[in-house]
Amino acid sequence: MLLPSIFGENLFDDFMDDFGCPAFPDVDKALYGKNARNIMKTDVKEKDDSFEVDIDLPGFKKDEITMHLEDGYLTVSAAKGLDKDEKNEEGTYVRRERYAGSMSRSFYVGDEITEEDIHPKYENGILSFSVPKKDKKAIEDKKHYIAIEG
Question: What is the Cα gyration radius of the chain?
Fold first, then answer.
């Protein structure tokens, strides 16, 4: 069942409030705007030698998540769809809130990082990995003089 939306806003967001269900604060909307449900909630913790990253991906299976490293950018993507042939024997859906679709997020990790440096683990709906800090190469302070003729 498709729910109508106008400019990305779901017309049925307040539908359940009419039935006396408690209202939850719109924390996600305040932080992320209209597309709050399509954003990977991410925590990044800096340690002495690395950055620890935790990404919430509830409801995804491990094979629905990919990580790609290119030109110093690490991209995490996740995609899933609801089974179109799924039938509910007890009736039709009035509201569906589970996410179906794709999302991705990119992080700049630097050109020194390779695939072997990142060891992701997916457990209980949370993708965790660490990105090591690489020592930046010291910039040589060479003075390049130009010869003046004459």
Answer: 23
pLDDT at 8 over 70: no
| pTM of the predicted model over 0.85 | no
Question: Cα dihedral angle (102, 103, 108, 112), rounded to 10 degrees?
Answer: -30
Domains of the chain: 1-39 (no CATH), 41-132 (2.60.40.790)
